[in-house]
Write a structure and sequence with these properties.
By secondary structure, the chain is of the alpha/beta class. It folds into 3 domains: 2-89, NAD(P)-binding Rossmann-like Domain (Rossmann fold); 96-301, UDP-N-acetylmuramoyl-L-alanine:D-glutamate ligase (3-Layer(aba) Sandwich), CATH 3.40.1190.10; 310-441, Mur ligase, C-terminal domain (Protein-Tyrosine Phosphatase, Chain A), CATH 3.90.190.20. It is built from 17 helices and 20 strands. The strands form 3 sheets. Strands 7-8-6-9-10-11-12-13-14 form a 9-stranded mixed beta sheet, covered by helices on one side. Helix 10 (216-224) links the parallel strand 10 and strand 11. Helix 1 (10-21) packs parallel to helix 7 (140-146), helix 6 packs across helix 11 and helix 6 crosses helix 12.
């Protein structure tokens, strides 16, 4: 069986290792450059590879193809493969049949990384033999090849779910859905929503779907679709006999006739959106029969995720917060919503078709100055130009942070929450967040 892998990054190389171990004839092809550390792994494992090209003769003879999530279905090589009837899968689909571990799959436009990390923290603290993968950390396929975990917590992007056929998590979570990546879905929101719901398409009556019952897009989907999975909703405003909710500053969870309650003030994560992430993760912990005392302890000591509302430093009584992971408007909405001091907001980058008007009431209420950090800031300036007293454009992080320091005074917050992708000025959102942290430390 010939396995061709398109993309020599984390998921590609992980799949190559697993494929070779399972007896496939493996070939890795990357249209860009393969990073040195991944090349070394391929060479040590005697796996054939090429970079900066796709040699069709070596690709179109595949029995099965795994493509990395970054490659769109519209790319010429994918079209040719599909025209020949060659199956094109995601890493998740390829690797899942080779493990009988319990799989917890987590998707959503925002909150999925925090929910994934918190779920992993809850299970690991309880002593479970659990792996963490998907869109985060070490590739799932690589772990299936080399480790023997009893369960996996996987963060799944819509791109990874687009490439599944039979994959089914025992427990699925949809944290929320808001417009994102619409350029990959013909600018049709419903296509993106359907893509997220693929997480539950193969689930049976024995499986569970945990979801945000306050989310409009999710509610709309349920009006015309069904899933066989047992439903566990969570909400900030509604209450359920089966599900999770907040009432009188208490998180209450009722699953399979078992109750769990905890004062929200003891939960380490702050902000309404994080209460939702905590309800989703705790629902998993309850389904996995973890003791209440362990759940309480884990929720109270969880450190949060880097680049997500991460407190960097307080300088001259001004708090600097790194929310570089906010790559869409909805994520920035949560960030601004959780500010309770006058805010200097650093925003901008590669726009994915953003509608900034959704942020208008929060900006009026909380933002005193805006610093645009992007190559093209016209849209941001058009929307907020008359709303804030101060609007400044910069083209590098050091200038952004120095300007923020100048515009802020005691008791203010400086918030990096870009609402955009980072590829105009930075390598990725991590690079953007790290540059911010370094610039703050240099003040």
């Amino acid at each position: 069986m010939r396995l061709v892998i398109l993309g020599g990054g984390e998921s590609g190389v992980g799949t190559a290792i697993l494929g070779k171990k399972k007896g496939y004839d493996v070939f890795v092809s990357d249209f860009g450059k393969i990073k040195g550390n991944y090349k070394e792994v391929l060479i040590i494992n005697e796996i054939a590879w090429e970079e900066e090209k796709h040699t069709e003769d070596l690709i179109l003879n595949a029995d099965v193809v795994m493509k990395s999530p970054g490659i769109p279905d519209k790319s010429p090589i994918i079209k040719k493969l599909l025209a020949k009837g060659i199956p094109v899968l995601s890493e998740i689909e390829f690797a899942a049949p080779f493990t009988d571990a319990t799989i917890i799959g987590i998707t959503g436009s925002n909150g999925k990384t925090t929910t994934t990390m918190l779920t992993y923290h809850l299970l690991k603290s309880a002593g479970l033999n659990v792996g963490l993968g998907g869109n985060i950390g070490k590739s799932f396929a690589w772990q299936v090849a080399e480790n023997k975990y009893d369960s996996y917590v996987l963060e799944l992007s819509s791109f990874q779910l687009d490439g599944i056929v039979n994959f089914k998590p025992h427990i699925a979570i949809i944290t929320n859905i808001s417009p994102d990546h619409l350029d990959r879905y013909d600018y049709k929101y419903e296509n993106y929503i359907d893509s997220k719901f693929r997480i539950t398409m193969n689930q049976s009556e024995e499986d569970y779907l945990i979801y945000d019952a306050d989310d409009e897009a999710i509610a709309e989907w349920f009006k015309t679709h069904t899933t066989k999975a047992k439903l566990i909703p969570f909400s900030l405003t509604k209450t359920f006999s089966e599900g999770a909710y907040i009432k009188n500053n208490k998180m209450e969870i009722s699953i399979n006739q078992e109750e769990f309650t905890m004062d929200t003030e003891h939960i380490a994560l702050e902000g309404k959106h994080n209460m939702k992430n905590a309800m989703a993760a705790t629902s998993v912990a309850k389904l996995m029969q973890i003791r209440k005392s362990t759940i309480r302890e884990s929720l109270s000591n969880f450190q949060g995720v880097e680049h997500r509302l991460e407190k960097v430093l307080k300088i001259q009584n001004v708090q600097y917060i790194n929310d570089s992971k906010a790559t869409n408007v909805n994520a920035t909405f949560f960030a601004l919503d959780s500010m309770n001091t006058p805010t200097v907001w650093i925003v901008g980058g590669v726009d994915k078709g953003n509608d900034y008007n959704e942020l208008m009431s929060l900006v009026r209420e909380k933002v005193k100055a805006i610093i645009c950090l992007g190559v093209d800031n016209k849209k941001i300036i058009d929307v907020f130009g008359n709303v804030v007293d101060m609007m400044i454009e910069v083209d590098n992080m050091n200038d952004a942070v120095r300007m923020a320091q100048r515009l802020s005074e005691k008791g203010d917050t400086v918030l990096l929450s870009p609402a955009c992708a980072s590829f105009d000025l930075f390598e990725n959102y991590e690079d953007r967040g790290n540059q911010f942290k370094q610039a703050v430390k240099n003040l």
